[in-house]
């Protein structure tokens, strides 16, 4: 039997960070053998916020691909896709858009949060509708499982609703379109260095997968801790500490001990941060090697993306044939 499929993606608006790593990348890497895995470089979705400067997206397409490869995705196993090259995603987006009301999109909590972050008041059709396009990303290849961060759950719910409605309307309830399942990681949301509830590219509070050892150490030293803890002799509360949240995510061997030591004032914040930075750097070291490899082989990366996109087009064209037939669009 064919393996089940994973599809997930990243907007190509810049470099990936620790939040992406624990929210989605680690699951992709863990499951790449078991599932046929598709990774989408979401450059069309990136346009929803960066349409004024599309030239910048080109470099990001490479960088996000390299971020994924450096993190440990095996190019012989996974299919890397440039979203704008896949015609069926655009076609499905249009067909799906009939089934989604503007009000449902307006009330989507992730859209609301992001609109506020970007300072948008009068939303473009493309931005408001990107969750519909995301449903097309996921369903063109019939993905079973979608590794995502917690903020993507409203979009997953919408994808499932669209797929169900589509199947009811055009396939008598049969699974013409696969109903996808979200896979949320154990660390579904990583706080930012500034203590903001989410690490984000546009929030200026991220540790990037590309950061060198010194930058990682420096950034971690700036991270917000328990603000009630002023002197080393004060007892700390790890439950409200960003650095402790990172220890939990990146220092599985030591985080319990660290919690005890913080509560009993046996370790100070500077030392605690040093330990954390060391762990993150150990995690990054093999990624740095792979990144250096791919950075020197851009042609290889380009070929991977082009081949992956072609494969996606073949799969998507088959999907569209079945959909056109089911919708009686064929004349
Ligand atoms: N919206 C996702 C994010 O911001 C990126 C994305 C685009 C995606 N297409 C997708 C995620 C399809 C999962 C599946 O992280």
Descriptors for this entry?
331 residues; mainly alpha; three-stranded parallel β-sheet; two-stranded parallel ribbon; 14 helices; 5 strands; 8% strand; globular; binds tryptophan
Kindly describe this structure.
The two termini are 34 Å apart. The protein has 331 residues and is mainly α. It has a three-stranded parallel sheet with strand order 1-2-3. The protein has a two-stranded parallel sheet with strand order 4-5. Helix 8 (130-139) packs across helix 9 and helix 11 packs across helix 13. The protein is globular, with a radius of gyration of 21 Å. The protein is 55% helix and 8% strand. The protein has helices spanning 18-31, 43-50, 55-71, 87-97, 102-106, 109-118, 125-128, 130-139, 153-171, 213-222, 242-250, 255-263, 269-295, 298-326; strands at 5-11, 36-42, 79-82, 145-148, 181-184. Helix 1 links the parallel strand 1 (5-11) and strand 2 (36-42). The structure holds tryptophan (TRP).
Summarize the structure.
The protein is mostly helical and 331 residues long. The protein has 14 helices and five strands.
Task: Please give the structural blueprint.
Layout: E1 5-11, H1 18-31, E2 36-42, H2 43-50, H3 55-71, E3 79-82, H4 87-97, H5 102-106, H6 109-118, H7 125-128, H8 130-139, E4 145-148, H9 153-171, E5 181-184, H10 213-222, H11 242-250, H12 255-263, H13 269-295, H14 298-326
Parallel strand pairs: 1-2, 2-3, 4-5
Bound molecules: tryptophan (TRP).
Tryptophan (TRP) is lined by residues 7-11, 40, 42, 45, 134, 137-138, 146, 148, 152.
